[in-house]
Amino acid sequence: MRIGVFCSSSPTIDPKYVDLAYQLGEGIGLKSWELVTGGGHISMMGAISRGARSVKGKTVGVIPQALVDIEFADHDNEELHIVETMGERKAMITDISDAFITLPGGAGTLEEFFEIWVGRYLKFHNKPVVILDPFGIYNPLHELFVHLESENFIKPGMRELITWTTNVDDALAACSL
Question: In the CATH hierarchy, which fold is given to the domain comprising 2-175?
Answer without folding.
Answer: Rossmann fold (3.40.50)
